[in-house]
Amino acid sequence: MREEKVVMYESPEAASIQTVTGWVAADGRFWGNDEHMARYCGSTHRICKNNPDHPIHRTNGWCDVCHDESRAAKFAAMPRRIWGGEPITDFDGDSYFFDEEDLRDHILNHEIDLADLKLVFCTPNYPSEIDPSDHFMDDLPEDGEINDDQLLAAFDLVNEMIRKSPPLSWSPGAEAVDLPQSFIDMIKHEREEAA
Fold first, then answer.
1. In a domain? residue 55
2. Taking Cα atoms as reference points, which of 69, 67, 97 lies closest to residue 84?
3. Which of 74, 89, 170, 173 is deepest in the core (most CB within 10 A)?
4. Domain encompassing residue 103
5. Cβ of 120: how many Cβ atoms within 10 Å?
6. Within the chain, what is the greatest distance between any pair of CA atoms?
């Protein structure tokens, strides 16, 4: 058995004064050689790393111009198809439209220019089936199984109903919407009549 070396509290071996050099943030935190973290913690704003001509932005945020350019490029690269009345949504918004009247009212009430409209088809969010072993995981012994046939039959019945369920909600999809010419003509006609 090795003997433990004894170092007394008062001994010069226990501690010594050292001079340390490193980066310190404006709030006094020492970051050693990590200049980036010291500057990140000590600053409120920064220059855009992609384009210094863009306006400054919050250190812990994103450049709004770069974000807008990135979103526009993503929308432009999406495959497109003509809308046939399916659920659609704003590309960067939270407005959902489930029929022609919803979209028409939105465009007219908010005086939206059709050229500025960026819409995408929605994808449905269906309820997930329930696995009884996952649901009762905390109640079962390790590597345990559910052996109650009635309980398993009840889960089978619930899962059958879940499979037949309509969507619970909708999410933005990856396909851009082209409005049919008849819809565009209707909007133009209604605007001309209102003028």
1. no
2. 97
3. 89
4. 62-194
5. 20
6. 98
Q: Is the pTM of this model over 0.85?
A: no
Same domain, 117 and 186: yes
* Backbone angle region of 3, left / alpha / beta, with phi > 0 → left and psi within -120 to 50 → alpha: beta
DSSP state of 115: G
Per-chain mean pLDDT for the chain: 92
Instruction: Please say if the pLDDT value at position 183 is more than 90.
Output: yes
Any residues with CB less than 8 A from the CB of 170 and at least 6 apart, and which?
87, 89, 96, 122, 123, 124, 125
Whether 162 is covered by a domain: the verdict is: yes
Domain count, the chain: 2
The residue-averaged pLDDT of 41-67 equals 94
Tokens of 16: 């010594």
- Calpha distance 17→66 (Å, rounded): 49
Residue 90 in domain: yes
Is residue 142 one of the residues assigned to a domain? yes
